[in-house]
Design brief:
Elements: H1 3-21, H2 24-31, H3 40-43, E1 50-55, E2 58-59, E3 63-64, H4 71-81, E4 85-89, H5 100-108, E5 113-116, H6 122-130, E6 135-139, H7 145-157, E7 161-166, H8 169-179, E8 183-187, E9 189-190, E10 195-196, H9 199-205, E11 213-217, H10 223-232, E12 236-239, H11 241-245, H12 249-257
Parallel strand pairs: 1-4, 1-12, 4-5, 5-6, 6-7, 7-8, 8-11, 11-12
Antiparallel strand pairs: 2-3, 9-10
Helix pairs in contact: 2-6, 4-5, 4-12
Length: 266
């Protein structure tokens, strides 16, 4: 069993536990009090390349990333540093995240929020909306055709945007043919072993039709890399670990976005 399969299996067990603790009807009741959404997809199409800045405490490949920090201080720094949107990793057993991180982020800044998790059950889509997410991630490699279509429709019905993540040609074909997804995330990280190859974005980009919003995920840490992505037509980049490890996340993000005094962001 590879890393992705282990995480999906763990997630399925965790969802069953949470559903018993908080029935779906209770989540649906919370949706009535949901505030105005913060358009996630729109934030990725502003001029230049947009940065989705991620809050992530740990990972299976990197271990603990930033001890002692709070969601509130990190996302506030990201907002000051010029992030277009947030990615909040809520998976618990492997990444030390939680749903409460969504609410904390929502209260601490005005940026749209992506719930970054391994979404495998409609219950998680309702959770995402109830806890303050504006968008969810669907990982094509983790879902069969029926699951992918069902979760995608459920998200749209709840006014959630969807970032559809692919890693290879077959997954990209599925995202386009099964969903006609508008926002495509190219993950440079292979989730079966967590290795990273940033060339993956450049290899798949030519196969994405014009008019789609393209997000490159994983492996970026320098402004020059973002400038190259912008030159080839990538709309946004998702960056987590390098920002979380930076002594000053705001300053690190300003360096990436070009948000210095007297200058404009990328």
């Amino acid at each position: 069993m590879n890393v992705l399969e282990r995480i999906v299996e763990s997630t399925q067990k965790e969802v069953r536990r949470r559903r018993k603790a908080v029935p779906l009807a209770e989540l649906e009741a919370h949706l009535a009090a949901r505030g105005d959404d913060r358009p996630f997809s729109e934030a990725l199409t502003r001029p230049g390349i947009s940065v989705i800045a991620e809050h992530k405490r740990r990972s299976p490949s990197a271990g603990e990333i930033r001890a002692g920090s709070t969601v509130e201080e990190i996302v506030a720094a990201y907002e000051r540093g010029g992030a277009a949107a947030l990615s909040i990793l809520t998976e618990g057993p492997h990444f030390a995240g939680g749903l409460e991180d969504l609410t904390a982020a929502q209260d601490a800044c005005r940026l749209p929020i992506l719930r970054k998790d391994f979404i495998v059950d409609p219950y998680q889509v309702y959770e995402s909306a109830a806890w303050g997410a504006d968008a969810i991630l669907l990982i094509v490699a983790a879902l069969d055709e029926k699951e992918l279509k069902s979760l995608f429709r459920e998200a749209l019905d709840l006014d959630l945007d969807v970032l559809v993540e692919v890693h290879d040609e077959e997954e990209l074909e599925r995202a386009l043919e099964e969903l006609d997804a508008d926002v495509i995330g190219i993950n440079n990280r292979d989730l079966t072993d967590f290795s990273v190859d940033i060339e993956r974005t450049f290899e798949l980009l030519a196969d994405i039709p014009a008019g789609k919003t393209v997000v490159s995920e994983s492996g970026f840490h320098a402004r020059e890399q973002l400038e190259e992505l912008e030159r080839v037509g990538v709309d946004a980049v998702l960056i987590g670990e390098s920002l979380m490890r930076a002594p000053e996340p705001e300053a690190a993000l300003r360096e990436l976005t070009g948000l210095h005094e007297g200058s404009e962001p990328l």
